[in-house]
Amino acid sequence: MRWIRDLMDKSSKDTIGDFEIELLLRGTPTMSEDLADLEDFVSSLSGQVERPADVGYMATALAATAHATGRSPRPALRRVMALAASVAVLFALSGVAMAADGAAPGDLLYGIDRAMERIGIGDGGVDERIVEFDTLIERGQHQDAFDMLDEFAGSAPEVEAGRAQRHIELAATKSNVIATAAQEKVAAKQQLIEDNRGNDGAGNGRDFGQGVSDDAQSDDQRGRAGEQVGNSDTQGPPDNAATGSDGTPPGQLEDIEPAQSDNADKANSSQRGDRTTGDNNSGGNGGGQSQNAPKTDK
Amino acid sequence: MSTTRFRSTTEDLHITRIEAAKGGAEWAWESIYKDFAGPVTGYLRSRGASDPDDLSSEVFFQVARDIHRFEGDESNFRSWLFVIAHRRLVDDRRASSRRVDTVDRDSREIETEGGDVEDEVMEHLALTRVEGMLGTLTEDQRNVLALRIIGDLTLEETADVMSKRVGAIKALQRRALQSIKKQLEEGRVAT
C-alpha cells in the first residue's frame, strides 16, 4: 500500500524536485513561491548556528591537546618497534645459529658454528664432531674428516677424545676408501693407547721407531710393523699399494713415527722390542725422531 | 590548466590545515574551531543535547586527541568531526536519559534575542513551531536535516556520518521536507 501513497505524493503538487531540495538545504533561494515557507523553515534552523566564543582560548587548548597526544604514542610505538626488531634479530640469529650448528668443515656457516661453540652456544662436543666427520666422509673429504676429528681429539677431554678415536677407528675399519694416512694415524693412536697400558724396556722403543722408519723402504719389515701396530694397519698395505704412487703415505708415515717412538721411549712393550731387534742402528735416529714428536702428538 | 592548478593548490592548503593541526599548530586549530564550532554546537543543540556548548567542546577535545589517527581530506574531516559529535550526542542522551529531541528552550530564547536578520524570519516562524514540526519527523529524517542544514554537510558527507548510502539520504531528506511543507501549508490554512 506504500507505493500507492508514494504515487499519490508524487502526483500531488507537494512533490519537490532533487534540484530544489539541494537549493533549500544549502540555503540558496529557490525563487519558487511554493517553497517560500520551506525556505523560512530552513533558515530558522540554520539560524541556530552561532559564532563560537573564546576562539583564541579554545585554539590554544586544542593545539596543546593535539601536540601532547600526538607525541606520546610515537615513543611508545618506537619502543614496540624496537622490541619487535630485536626479537626479529634474535630469531634471525637463532636461525643462523641453528643452521650453522649443523655445518660441517668447509661449509659457509662452519666458522659461525665453531665460533658459537667457543662461547658456549650449540656445543655438540664429540657428538657433533662425529656427525661432521661422517658428513665429510660422505662427501669424500676423508682427509679433512680425519684431520678435523683428530684435531678435536687432541684438545678434547679424555672421554670425548676416546670416543673420537674409536669413531675414527670404526670409520677406518668400516671404510676402505679412507686414506691410508688416516689409517696410519689411527694405528699410531692405538699404539699410543697400548703403550700407555704399561710396559717396560726403554731402549726398544727406538728400535721400533727405527724399524718402522726403515719399513718405508722395506715392504717386508713394514708388514711386520703393521702387525704390531694394530688391526687397522692390516688394511694398510693394500690401501697403501693403491695410493702409494702419489708419495703421500711415506710423508705421513714419517710424521707418525716420532710419536710412536716418543712414547716408546717412555714405555715400550717388550713384545714389540723383540720383534724389532733385527735393526741395529737405533740411537741417532731415535733422537731425531724424538725432536719431531711434539708436532704430531697434538 | 590554470584552474586545475588553482584547485590543487587550495586542496593542498586544506590538507596543510589538517596536517598543521596534527602537529599542534595553533593557527590551524583556530581556523578549524572558527569553521566548525558553530555547526557542531548547533547540531548538538538541535538534536537535544543537554548542554550543547559543553558537549561541543568535549567533541573538539576528542578531535584534538585523535587527530593524529585521522587520514583524509577536508571533506573526510568534516564527516569525521560529525561522527564524533553524533557519538557524543548518543552518549549524552543515554547519560541524561532525556527524551529524544527535546530542545532546550531556555537557551534557544536567549540566543534569538539578538538583532540579526534571522529575527525577521523568526517572526514568521516561531521556533516552537519549528520544533513541533521537527518532532513529527522520524529520527533519521531529523538527523539528516540537522546535518545538512545546521552542520552544513554535503549529501555525501551526511551519508558518511550516518553510514548510509547517498540514495537513502536523498530519500530521507525529500520525505522530511515534503512532510514539513505539508505541515506548513496546513498551518497556513489553519491560521
Task: Please tell me about this protein's structure.
The complex is a heterodimer of chains A (298) and B (191). Helix content of chain A is 73%, strand content 0%. By secondary structure, chain A is mostly helical. Among the domains of chain A are: 2-44, no CATH class; 189-298, no CATH class. Chain A is rod-shaped and about 125 Å long. The model of chain A is unreliable at 221-298 (pLDDT under 50). Chain B is mainly alpha-helical and 191 residues long. Chain B has one domain (2-190). Chain B has ten helices and no strands. Chain B has helices spanning 2-22, 26-46, 52-66, 74-96, 105-111, 118-124, 127-135, 139-150, 155-162, 166-190. In chain B, helix 8 crosses helix 10. The longest helix of chain B has 25 residues, at 166-190. The radius of gyration of chain B is 18 Å and the shape is globular. Classes of the chains: A mainly alpha (298), B mainly alpha (191). At the A-B interface, helix 2, helix 3 and helix 4 of A face helix 2, helix 3, helix 6, helix 7 and helix 8 of B.
In short:
Chain A has 298 residues and is mostly helical.
Helical residue percent band of chain A: over 70%
State the secondary-structure class of chain A. mainly alpha
Separate helix tally of chain B: 10
Oligomer: heterodimer
Helix-strand blueprint:
The complex is a heterodimer of chains A (298) and B (191).
Chain A lengths: L1 H10 L6 H8 L10 H11 L8 H17 L1 H29 L8 H9 L6 H15 L2 H14 L2 H17 L5 H17 L5 H14 L3 H11 L6 H8 L4 H19 L3 H6 L7 H14 L2
Helix pairs in contact in A: 5-6, 7-8, 7-9, 8-9, 9-10, 10-14, 11-12, 11-14, 11-16, 14-16
Chain B lengths: L1 H21 L3 H21 L5 H15 L7 H23 L8 H7 L6 H7 L2 H9 L3 H12 L4 H8 L3 H25 L1
Helix pairs in contact in B: 1-2, 2-3, 2-4, 3-4, 4-9, 8-10, 9-10
